[in-house]
Queue: 2 jobs
Job 1
Amino acid sequence: MVEINPLVIFVASIFTNNMILANFLGMCSFIAVSNEIETSFSLGQAVTFVLTATSVLNYLIYHYVLVPYNLEYLRFIIFIIVIAAFVQLVEMIIERYFENLYYSLGIFLPLITVNCAILGVSLFMVIRDYNLLQSLLFGAGSGIGWTLAIVAMAGIRKKLKTASIPKGLEGPGITLIITGIMALAFLGFSGIVKIQ
Amino acid sequence: MSEIKKLFSLGVWKDNPVYRQILGICSALAVTNLLMNSLVMGIGLIFVTAFSSLTVSLLRNHTPKHIRMMIEVLIISTYVIIMDIFLKAYWPEMSDALGPYVGLIITNCIIMGRCEAYAQNNPPFLSFIDGATMGLGYTAVLLFIAFFRELLGFGSLFGIQVLGDSFMRWTLMVMPPGAFFMLGIVIWIARNIFPDQTEGGPVNG
């Protein structure tokens, strides 16, 4: 596992092991927020940032605090606390120093804490035994992949607004079916690189 | 008694967390390629939801309002850790198969949603039942999806071959796209049965 080139992990986590399309993580905000391209992009940026930072933080805490004291089983609690605390911190910093950014990103930050992609990346990192650089690129790649998927979905849903969709399929139903088709398309990348 | 009956019909059928409230679908998609995985995941979720609701309800008069979310997350994590350790000890293969999705029960918003919406304001016993029935509704949908995915994808049910060798396997069904299509279809059917669905609603985690 450890010998995989970090760049391979980076590319793989964007295309072949996309967080949404291959691992189903972060579906809920994906369905809820993918109405507008701009908001999707803002959320994507926020997710990428938090994902990259928390995967590194969680890596350090896991390997330098939890493992030496044999507390691996506490990782769920620790990871979720780190994520919540980090999101809170980022929110305060952005509110204080970058007011414009706060208004475009601010409302999404609390949402990110419960986005399962964030916790999922930290858990995958532990299960797959990545080193620091691999974790960093895995976090960043996953975030970019997530952003790519949600922005693409927002673009498709914009076109869908004028389409007539069968009754009962509007909203989540059609979004899921389109996601399925997108996942199908992304399977085409699977020949490029493979992790796991 | 009638209260329990009402909760039961809400959780399992009329207000089902998966197809009505669109909650907790990450794991609903991820583990449904095999019936056995779905069953274990469902039982785990029933356990965590029921006991988290119970604990939150017991502590509801002693929890300061502004940090209640944090407390709820800690309570949920505790039960998820118990489940994770239990699985690792007694069924390591299943623990490997479910991978990170056991840990991700923490961010499954069904649990948080029930704690916030029901257990905060109701007595412990009813909260416990409410959590358990919501978990049951989740399990039912998971098994329904997994039934079709495993049957068409592997030609088997619970790992036992039922369709024979001549059956052409729909490999697509056990890959991610199959999961999206199945859940989309389930939601479509459900919305035709219950057409009064209000659009939007809480969608998180």
Note: The mean pLDDT of chain A is 83.
Job 2
Amino acid sequence: MLTRINVGPIHPSTHGVLRLVVTLDGDTIVDVEPHIGFLHRGVEKLAENRMYMQSESYMEKIDYVAPMAYSDLYVAAVEEAMGIHPKERAKYVRLILLEFQRIASHLLWLGAFCNDLGQIFTMFMWTMKDRDLILNLLQDVTGSRMFYVNMRLGGVSIDLPPNFEEHANKLLDYLEKRFKDYETFLEKNPVFIERTKDVGILKREDAIALGVTGPVLRASGVNFDVRRDYAYYVYEKLHFIPQVQTKGDSFARYKVRMREMKESIKLIRDALKLMPEGDALGMPIKLISPPVKESEVIVRRELPRGEGMIFMVTDKQRPYRLAIRAPSFINLSALRYIAKGARYADLFSILGSLDLVMADVDR
Amino acid sequence: MLRPIIETIKTLGEDRFTTTFPEEKERQPDNYRGLHRLDIETCISCGACERICPNKTITMVDANTSRGKRKLPQIDLERCLFCGLCEEVCPTRCLTLTKNYEYTEFDRRRFTRRPEELR
Amino acid sequence: MLTDSFGRLIVEVIAIFILIVFFDYTFGWLERKSIAKAQFRHGPTYVGKFGILQNLADIVKLLAKENIIPKNADKLVFSTVPLLLLALFIFLIYLLPFPDSLGIDISVGLLAIFVLLSFAPLLIFLTGAASGNKFSLISAQRSVIMSLAYEVPLILSVAAVALYAGSFNIADIVNSQAKIPFIVLMPIGFVVFFIAMLAELERPPFDLREADSELIAGWLVDVGAPYYAVALFVDYTRMFLGSLLISLLFLGGWLGPYLPGLIWLLIKAFVAAVVIVIMRATTVRMRLDRLMRFGWFWLLPLAVLNIILTFMLFVK
């Protein structure tokens, strides 16, 4: 006998407003149907009526867990349309800040994932503390803990303060220690292992066919990362290695993200060493945008959730059409295939391991 | 199973990280983007802040100054994103964002701050 | 023990009731503050010094709210069963022997307690099923299924204790720990009992009944506010029962130098409760089928092994 359960828009575990209509046969899932759109704010349309640099604030609010990544994606698209290349030091500064943002985003994911599995916020509080330390560092640089609005054409709005390097290195040492603690806490916990191993397996061919990207794709054995294959900023110089696991279950997705955090620490350390002196400031905001050279641009970046893309058709002062490929939207569509045949309790393990942010799904 | 329990017990010895809010306040850097502050004497009424604001937060309204009746920016705090574009575009640097972030009111109409109130 | 004067009986009843309320209240406060400390945060601080009055404020707030019974619910069952559950657990605490001759002392105390304890999942199932709500029904079913897996190892590990002490009277069991407490004599039995007790108390990692990230609040989704207060009280009373059982059966009860017996009993109950709270802060929730598997394939053989070892080593 099939029962239909409504895992409603308001639920402690759906990472935002997501409605899942789950059809169950006893305890086994037969079908999952996501209903989205509760958080749609029409960002793409809003950008059509504003000048290029005015929409940067809206782009940040698409993914509120890692705002700088989207802001960087958008500003990179505008720079490509105008033919502006970021300054050399600015590339390093952007890379450092983006990798810090990636660590912060994965930390929040880790906390929320453990929450979904049943922990009462213990892991969440610990990772929030670490994320708080990163946000304090970013606040010293940009002035704000979330919604930094610090990307400008050709660089950043404020350069790194003079004692940034030592603060960053201290924070990175602390984070490395904490990551070891987290791994002990979770991987030596037999209950965690049995909640995540062999749960929600996504095979390699299915992952490619469904179009998922980011850690979900890399956990299924596909060695693809925008930072290496379509390298931007200075990732080639820093010898970046994508982290890949082959099993494709929730544990593999967890492992990929943990390793990515460690890889980000390595990248930041190397970037701090190699960063040249100079000027990283971009163009300040003016009432008239610089002239646009291209009429259509496509830019891709590796956001913490997956691969983000912007396709922009330009007009003189404002984008004519802005199309955003949001990684969470595609990853959510894979939920239906992964969850077939799993148990009801596994649904939350899978949903948590996909790392969705509803604002990213709905834009 | 024992290692995770030891981790939990270890944290019982560490300090708390949360601040008890109204008694202790968080630290803020100097470039924090808080509430606006308008220097009425320096404002030249160019309207650049009104034009750059993405959210149509700022409107230029009539106000009395020591130099006569001029148009000065009025800010609707319910719409403000605190993005800082208005501060960046102001030619005379009369509109700045301070470190003040506390604004609670009982009456919703008080959120539309007239130019004289932006201190 | 059954007293000879009615006045004394009334005094005993009230004394134990006050003890229950005291434990529930302080345990609630202790749990919130220690979990908060393990999570780098403060916990309740405003209401009373160190937040000691927070639970009182919560209970007053809950009792003062309107009780809403959903339309699809079975009114009679829904309104009476939570109160029955509370009565059951309070009665069970009265069956335990307290030192200084408080409490009832029955010769088959151990059996009586565990028989009555197995009523609890049924009553919870009734409440959940009477809510007329799919989530409560699922969580109620889970509760009953879980008890299938854990009742047997629980009783078997207690049987080893009774075997050694030679009696079902809990006072005798405590007195036979005068030289060595049972936790040292039968460590396997203690571990099995502790885990099975966690499942019986439905505390993490076995809190499937109220899995709040999956089922929102499980069987409590639709109960009205005053009944929620009753459910919290039931939870904490159950904890008191569990920690008392652990301390009486394995830690030596009221035996100990210098301090009066009652104080030792409470200290040991608090120690057991603290360990349970640390388990709560650390683990994630188990999945139902793995839990059943764990109960049948690991706990049951270990409990049987424990009985065999106890018999061979000590009873011969």
Note: Residues 68-315 of chain C form one domain.
